Task: structure prediction
Amino acid sequence: MALTALRYTAALAQLLASSLALSQVTPANSALNYPVKPVRVVIPYAPGGGVDIVGRLTGAKLGEEYKQQFIADNRMGGGGIVGNDIVAKAPADGYTLLAMNSALTYLPALYPKIPYVTLREFAPITLIGVTPSVLVVNPAVPAKSTRELIALMKAKPGQINYAAGVGGTLHLAVALFEDMAGVKGTLIPYKGGGPALIDTVSGQVQMMIVPVVSAIGHIKSNRLRALGVSGARRSPMLPDVPTIADTGVPGYEYITWYGLLAPAATPRPIIAKLNQSVARALAGAELRERFAQQGVEVEASTPEQFTALLQKELPRWAQIIKAAKIQGE
Result:
């Protein structure tokens, strides 16, 4: 009887010791083996778009490194809000990630009742790349530079029209241009960038700010005139076209960025591990070349740099959207 009690006591002590050891596993230790199961990468847009392509290609490279599946999960709706909210409310264990673009910073201003708070509910992991746009006009427009277009728009307020979807990236790019240049055009609303570009080429609409990759064929065939690229530097795809900032609107910069995020409470060692892995993937020629085919320029960052970008862009877009009286549809 005493021997049995002694054995029970010893077994209990061993069990308690094992439990204590497990409880002392640190996040750093758990990150060493991460991931031990498939990772879901939520893409809040339809297959085939920029976020989908960037998210899938990046996930595939992570899968190669970790020998684990990174599964793209397209969750459309609300201009990206539905997919974003899924990740915001997911377990913060590194097994649900968000591939998203710069819409993350302007959606709260377009939709005041958005169900999450961006800076509170997401942990930025890394930027992945950027897509610059280009200010183009139909060749019938008598403006050969950004400065000449600004002068024309000031001389004829509201008479120069532009094509964009209400509250979309094409709209916001022009809204920023109008705000910084002190001009006003007239929005011709379109449901998609494709039809908007076609009508700008045909002359039914006079100007657009459109992703370089979408417009480059029309620019090279002289069906559109490129006045300035929207990034802080010239685009490798249009090396002879100056920036909008250098030719009429100092400080103007509009890019579509792509990034990877996680739920806010995801352990920092997992965030750091993913950041380093994406940086390695972006340094390779394969991913750079595949992104370049889509008009995406590789641009990695630290989590802190990505966070700083969100902190800067959220109030910036809130101010611009309010001034332009833009409402999400």
Q: What stands out?
A: Residues 131 and 296 are 5 Å apart (CA to CA). The two ends are 77 Å apart (CA to CA). Residues 1-13, 15-25 have pLDDT under 50 and may be disordered. The beta strands are 39-43, 70-74, 96-101, 122-137, 161-164, 186-189, 207-211, 225-229, 255-263, 297-298.
